Every structure is written in C-alpha cells, then in structure tokens.
C-alpha cells in the first residue's frame, strides 16, 4: 500500500464543565464529545526520500481562495509532529519505513472549537500505523496522541465519549443519532487565551453517575444539559458571539470547545433544517457576524476511518 486516503472528522462538545485546576496549570474537565460528518481528508503517499513532507490545502467552500496553501510551522503542526514521532519510534524499534508525503485537505476551520488539528493528528497516527505496518495497539496510539494534544485520544477511540481529566480518560457515552446546525463566525479564538482569561468560569464541580446518566438522557432527547464553562471567557474576548446568541433567542445555541463555533442540537433532520432556515434569517438580520459558514451535520456512531483501515 503506497497511497492511503483517510477522513478526520470534527467534534462537538455537548457540554463542557471544568472540575478543577492541576498543579501543572492545566484544567481537568468533564465533557461529552461527539463526532460529526464535517471532515478533513488526509492523503498519505510513500516516497523514496527519508523524510516527512506536509502540504495543507484550504478546501472549504467559503474559503477566499480555494486550494490555497495553509502555512503552519512544523513545531506547531500536529500532523508533522505525529508523523515524526512515529518515524522516530519505528527507527528505535528497528522497523524499516519509507518517507511519506501527507496532503491535508481542510474542511474544518482552524481555531473553531471543533478539534480539527487534533483530529488530523489522530488520523495521521492511525493511518501511518497502518501504512508503515507498525502494529501499535489503540492504547499505544492513545498514549502517543496524548503527548501531542489533550483531545487526540478521543479521536483515536473513535466514538462518542464522556471525556475526563485533561482528555485522557474516556468513558462510554452512548448517544442516539443527532443532527446539528453549526455556525462558524469566520474568526478563531485562542484556547490559551480563553483558559487564562479572568472571566473563565471557575465554579468547579464534578458530575456524579446520576448526573451523567441524566445528561445522556437529556441529550438523546435533543435538549442541552449543563453548560460550556468556556463561554464566559470566550464571549469577553469576542463579544459579537454573545450578542448573536442573545439576538437569536429563543433558538437554543451553544459554543463548542473554546470557540468560536456555535451550534444547535436536534433529534431529527427535519428539525435541524427548520432551525437552519431560522438561523440563516437571523444571521441576515444581525450585524455582529458578517462572515460566516453555516450547515447541517449528523453525528457519527463511530470514526469513519475504521471503514478504511
């Protein structure tokens, strides 16, 4: 196998509660993660040269310049770091591997709270494990992934989960099929800036098993549970998000991750389509968010990469 194409889906945080701050400065959390059918595509091609090459292209329909290259320094590029780490591990184990050219075709916007970088990283680890015949277990890939990003293990696990710790603890969280209307406002929000902001919600609490089961039942009925603790800080950084959520009432919207994307949740496609039309009308009426992408997406029961590898 010299060429392999794999998907890298986005995720949504259906709720996100902070449960405490660790000595290393990171925050522990409890959050329900779900995969949706908004996907980047990664193409891996083995090459003769003993190196890792990366090309990232903007494939979003709303991109200013379709197929424009996105430049990310290697030390900040999770795909490059994942490939390099596996390459070094292979050499330490005496496994002979080829170099690789990786083309990342971006559909997931950057800095949007959708986990695009972490998902690309996870798909890179899983794809190279296959194409390089490394035979690493899922648990081994998760450990490598955690060293690269807190959300990476979730994507390797590949199904809806209650995520705890900094992202390394995954618990089963079965969800029925759900539909989402997703709005990306055309700007990004810095995750470190959100977590260090003085307005960050630090009313730490831990959900017990009864609360977790209640959350699951509410979500399966198409109702939000709890909150996203990061909204208060993100809305201070980009107040136009808060203004739009207020303007869009009574539509129920929530921010994913540290922002900037916001979404509604539905148990049927018809309900999602109705809300989509309502949101488009609201977006045309307001003046805070002028450059946006909006679409309807469905949850995945499992990571679509499992159908490929």
UniProtKB/TrEMBL annotation:
Lineage, top-rank taxon, reads Bacteria
Quick one: signal sequence residues? none
Which terms does the record give in the GO molecular function aspect?
4-(cytidine 5'-diphospho)-2-C-methyl-D-erythritol kinase activity; ATP binding
Enzyme Commission number(s): 2.7.1.148
- List keywords of the entry alphabetically: ATP-binding, Isoprene biosynthesis, Kinase, Nucleotide-binding, Transferase
Q: Which Pfam families does UniProt cross-reference here?
A: GHMP_kinases_N
Where the record annotates domain GHMP kinase N-terminal, the positions are 77-158
What is any one GO biological process for this UniProt entry? isopentenyl diphosphate biosynthetic process, methylerythritol 4-phosphate pathway
- Show the PANTHER family listed in the entry: 4-DIPHOSPHOCYTIDYL-2-C-METHYL-D-ERYTHRITOL KINASE, CHLOROPLASTIC
**Functional description taken from the UniProt entry:** Catalyzes the phosphorylation of the position 2 hydroxy group of 4-diphosphocytidyl-2C-methyl-D-erythritol.
Similarity field: Belongs to the GHMP kinase family. IspE subfamily.
The record's listing under NCBIfam families reads: ispE
Q: What is this protein called?
A: 4-diphosphocytidyl-2-C-methyl-D-erythritol kinase
Q: Which organism is it from?
A: Taylorella asinigenitalis 14/45
């Amino acid at each position: 196998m010299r060429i392999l194409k794999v998907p890298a889906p986005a995720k949504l945080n259906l709720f996100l509660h902070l449960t405490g701050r660790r000595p290393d400065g990171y925050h522990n959390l409890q959050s329900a993660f779900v995969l949706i059918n908004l996907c980047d595509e990664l193409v891996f091609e083995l090459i003769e040269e003993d190196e890792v090459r990366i090309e990232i292209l903007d494939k979003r329909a709303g991109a200013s310049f379709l197929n424009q290259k996105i430049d990310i320094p290697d030390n900040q590029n999770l795909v490059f770091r994942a490939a390099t780490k596996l390459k070094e591990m292979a050499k330490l184990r005496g496994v002979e591997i080829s170099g690789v050219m990786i083309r990342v075709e971006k559909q997931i916007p950057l800095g949007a709270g959708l986990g695009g970088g972490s998902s690309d990283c996870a798909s890179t680890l899983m794809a190279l494990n296959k194409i390089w015949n490394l035979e690493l277990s899922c648990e081994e890939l998760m450990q490598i992934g955690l060293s690269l990003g807190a959300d990476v293990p979730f994507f390797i696990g590949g199904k809806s989960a209650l995520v705890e710790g900094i992202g390394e603890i995954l618990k089963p969280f079965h969800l029925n099929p759900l539909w989402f209307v997703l709005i990306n406002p055309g700007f990004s929000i810095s995750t470190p800036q959100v977590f260090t902001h003085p307005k960050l919600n630090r009313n730490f609490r831990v959900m017990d098993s009864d609360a977790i089961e209640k959350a699951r039942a509410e979500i399966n009925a198409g109702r939000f549970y709890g909150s996203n603790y990061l909204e208060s800080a993100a809305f201070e950084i980009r107040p136009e998000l808060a203004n739009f959520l207020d303007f869009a009432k009574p539509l129920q919207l929530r921010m994913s991750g540290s922002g900037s994307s916001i979404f509604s949740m539905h148990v049927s496609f018809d309900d999602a389509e109705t809300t989509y039309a309502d949101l488009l009308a609201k977006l045309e009426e307001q003046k805070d968010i002028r450059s946006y992408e909006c679409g309807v997406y469905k949850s995945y029961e499992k990571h679509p990469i499992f159908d490929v590898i």
